[in-house]
Design brief:
About 35% of the residues lie in helices and about 20% in strands. The chain is of the alpha/beta class and about 250 residues long. The longest helix is centred in the last third of the chain and has 15 residues. The termini are far apart.
């Protein structure tokens, strides 16, 4: 049975969503608050979680992260034309948005893509400590106009200048470069830093990526050496080459 979790719905919206779900032959379970939702997620599996505008914006990013971890399924936001604050708060942090919440047919159409049975994607590296050092510190990662120096906690610019990075930004960039052409969700990048003893949030991941870009952008050939995948996370689409420190990496 297809299950949909509806988080903190108002009475009118609950009725509209239930009519939409009935048309999809799915089952909807509503949670009166976030603690209730977490308890429900511990007992049942769900295909999608719907966030309602009435739940408010306070700590919403942490709420989204918590729900996603507990359910391992997409988190989708229901939008309200009269609530722009809600739209801005969840934009970029959910896996999708459904723009109209007044007509059951529109909600059903927005839900359909999340209810299709998909072949599980191939397993990819998990951000665990044992995988953080795939390359010895004597090696460097060359990309764009830079060489990422594993031994000096920073980035060398082709031409000789060196940019030191704070440890958290260094570890974040290290993981992304070690897995080029893979899109990582923000919560996965949170796990990367958590494995190194940090306590990041999805918002702080955004901030760290912005800081990395700000430091490297003036020297980059490609301004999108780390690209934002809207609504999901980040990807490095550069060719990353492993070079030994004895090699002339800064050509």
């Amino acid at each position: 049975m297809t299950n949909i979790l509806l988080a903190e719905p108002c009475p009118v919206l609950k009725d509209t969503v239930k009519r939409a779900v009935d048309s999809l032959s799915a089952n909807v379970v509503d949670a009166s608050n976030i603690n209730d939702a977490i308890h429900i997620l511990e007992k049942d599996k769900f295909n999608v979680i719907l966030l309602c505008p009435g739940m408010g914006t306070e700590n919403i990013i942490q709420v989204i992260t918590t729900l996603r971890r507990g359910a391992n399924c997409p988190v989708v936001g229901l939008l309200d034309d009269n609530n722009s604050k809600w739209h801005k708060a969840i934009l970029g942090h959910t896996d999708g948005l459904i723009s109209s919440t007044k007509r059951p047919g529109d909600i059903a159409a927005g839900l359909k893509p999340y209810l299709v049975t998909r072949t599980p994607p191939p397993e990819r590296p998990r951000p665990v400590m044992s995988q953080m050092r795939r390359h010895p510190v004597s090696q460097r990662l060359q990309f764009d106009n830079f060489v990422f120096d594993l031994s000096r906690f920073g980035v060398c610019i082709k031409g000789g200048e060196f940019i030191a990075l704070p440890v958290s930004e260094f570890r974040l960039l290290e993981w992304i470069l070690m897995h080029p052409n893979q899109t990582f969700r923000r919560y996965e990048l949170c796990e990367v830093l958590a494995a190194h003893g940090f306590s990041p949030t999805e918002t702080s991941i955004n901030t760290k990526i912005l800081r990395i870009r700000k430091k490297l952008l003036p020297y980059a050939k490609n301004p999108e050496f780390i690209r934002t995948v809207h609504g999901i996370g980040y990807i490095c689409e550069e060719d990353v080459e492993v070079v030994n420190s004895s090699q002339e990496g800064l050509k």
